[in-house]
Every structure is written in structure tokens, then in C-alpha cells.
């Protein structure tokens, strides 16, 4: 069965990844766009609101929501109430309360709901998870440093409350960590650096805890949006047996004890849509709030420091 699908919010990620991934997947037909600006691609019909879409094209039964997290609650709610199956970009919502409510609504409306975490859809991440299963970690280091001017030029929403700041990319690292960690992980302490003229952090550090810590273990993360030159999206882990895993390039490459074992071009979004087709066929939702919970807890317990004003 081919699913007629519409994209809601035609921004960077929709154009770069969702449009081509949907068009390359025979289980889907990209049927329409919902865009506040009535933007479109491939001459597809474009509607200003979901209501207009559903009125004009009742056979579009599924939507992919690619708007920013703040404000997405109402967008998802409208789609679920209209009886649509819903895939959403990360992070799933601006707050934990919102995603809890949306998951309950999806169940009540008997709709399929998928909170995607694109960075998990790499073979290297799956292999890291397999290798760490049943092990204990002596050390975990997340090093996520990129240049905000290069990756988020002119995106005002990421600096506003609910926009996540450096946790917009950082939550990708946390989505990998929560996927590969062999035991639950939570925030012990955090430090957030917020520019004087912005609402969200430009830098952050987290120290993690586990329920039953390994003696002298150290589990940490650094996120920084001021890195020029070479960018770093690296997660290193060392087990108590001394095995060292390093995921680089956002989860695309894996080395084990300095030997490169996986290095594959990103297939994140094609694999997201392959799973979306499977979830739709099985009528099964997939909702995971763990990465969002880590960010929320960092905001709850983190020391805040004001830093230099940020200019685009
Ligand atoms: P973006 O380029 O700013 O696009 C977001 C789109 O959402 C806008 O073009 C707009 O589309 C719509 N929109 C609705 N309300 C909006 C508002 N209040 N402010 C701005 N746009 C609004 O953002 P993006 O980079 O695509 O990110 C969207 C989501 O995807 C975020 O949750 C982000 O974390 C996630 N994501 C982004 C990337 C990336 O590389 N950029 C990668 C993975 C995931 P219309 O005008 O068509 O309505």
C-alpha cells in the first residue's frame, strides 16, 4: 500500500532530507505541503493550514512535521485530532508535558505516532549498541562542537525560549547516548552558558550518573556552538574491560580499540522512512522521550552563566 503523505513546515531539514527520502521510497507518495508561506517543491499543492489540506485532500492520511519544536504541540494535536498518523522531527516538543500529552492523545485517537531521532539511524550506532550491551562503562565522553553560524544561519527560533540553543544539535548526541548506553543514564550536574542577548545556551557541560555507578567512572558531555574550523561530533566510550569505542561524524563512523569497523555514508532519513512504513503497516507507535528528558534535567539542575552577547 502506498501512503499519501504531506510535509508540514518546508524549512531546511524538510528540503534537504524529508523530500528526497520520501520521493525515493515506494511506500510513500509525497502528495502536498503545508507551509505558512505557501512554499512548495516539485509543483506540489501547498496549503497554508492543515485544515485546508485535509478538506482538499482527505486521502492524505499521514503527515511529517518539520516545524521548530516550540509551537509543534498544536500542530501535532491538530493532525492527530484530524485522524492522521504523525511522524515528527526531533526534538519531539518544547516540554516533557507536551510530549506526554501527545503520546496519550495518539493512543486515544488510535493513530500511529513516531518521534524520530535521526542520529540513531546509523549502522555504526547500532553496532556500538550491540558491542556495549551487557557491559559497564568506565568512561563516556561526548564532544559535540560546531559552528552555529555555519549550521544555523539566521534561525531566530533556536535562540528563543523553547528553541533549545546548543541542545538543538546536542540532543542528537543524547539520542545516541540513550540508544547505546547499556544502563539508564541521568543528569548529575550541568553548566549552561547563555549569551547576554539570547534565551538559550551557546555552550553546555553535563556530568551524568547511573543508578549503580562503577567506581571512579566518569560520564560527561560538552556541547559548544563556538567551534570554528574542524567540527566535532564525537562520542567515546570505554568499558570496564578496557574496550574503547569511538563514534565520530555524528554516528557515521565507529572505531573499536583504534580499528575502524564501520564507515558508511549517512542513510539516516531513508532508514527513518523505511521504519515509518513498517510502523504504519503494523499500526505501532514509537515514542521515546529519553533524550528530551536529559536536556530538560540539564535545564533544571544546571548552573547558568551569562556569556558574551551573540551576533549572527
Ligand atoms: P527551519 O529551516 O527554520 O525550518 C522550519 C520551518 O518550519 C520553516 O521554514 C517554516 O516553514 C516552519 N515554521 C513554522 N513555525 C515556525 C516558526 N515559529 N519559526 C520558524 N519556522 C516555522 O528549521 P529546520 O532546520 O528545518 O529545523 C526544523 C526541525 O528539524 C527542528 O526541530 C530541528 O531540530 C530539526 N532538524 C534540523 C536539522 C537541520 O540540519 N537543519 C537536522 C535534523 C533535524 P513554512 O514557512 O513552510 O511553514
Describe this protein's structure.
This protein is an alpha/beta fold and 312 residues long. The protein folds into 2 domains: 3-115, NAD(P)-binding Rossmann-like Domain (Rossmann fold); 119-265 and 297-307, Dihydrodipicolinate Reductase, domain 2 (2-Layer Sandwich). It has helices at 12-23, 50-56, 72-81, 96-108, 123-132, 148-151, 167-180, 268-282, 290-301, and strands spanning 3-8, 28-34, 46-47, 62-65, 85-88, 113-115, 137-145, 186-195, 203-209, 218-224, 232-239, 244-248, 253-256, 259-263, 303-307. The protein starts with a strand and ends in a 5-residue tail after the last strand.
The radius of gyration over CA amounts to 20 Å
Task: Sum up the overall morphology in one term.
Answer: globular
Question: Ligands bound here?
Answer: NADP nicotinamide-adenine-dinucleotide phosphate
Text of the CATH class of the largest domain: Alpha Beta
Across the major sheet, the strand order is 14-13-12-11-7-10-9-8-15
Let me know the average pLDDT: 97
The CATH topology of the largest domain turns out to be: Dihydrodipicolinate Reductase, domain 2
Instruction: List SSEs in N-to-C order.
Output: EHEEHEHEHEHEHHEEEEEEEHHE
Q: Count all strands and give the number.
A: 15
Which structural class matches the secondary elements?
Answer: alpha/beta
Q: What assembly state would you assign to the polypeptide chains in this entry?
A: single chain
The figure for the number of domains is 2
Q: Gap between N and C termini, in Å? A: 46 Å
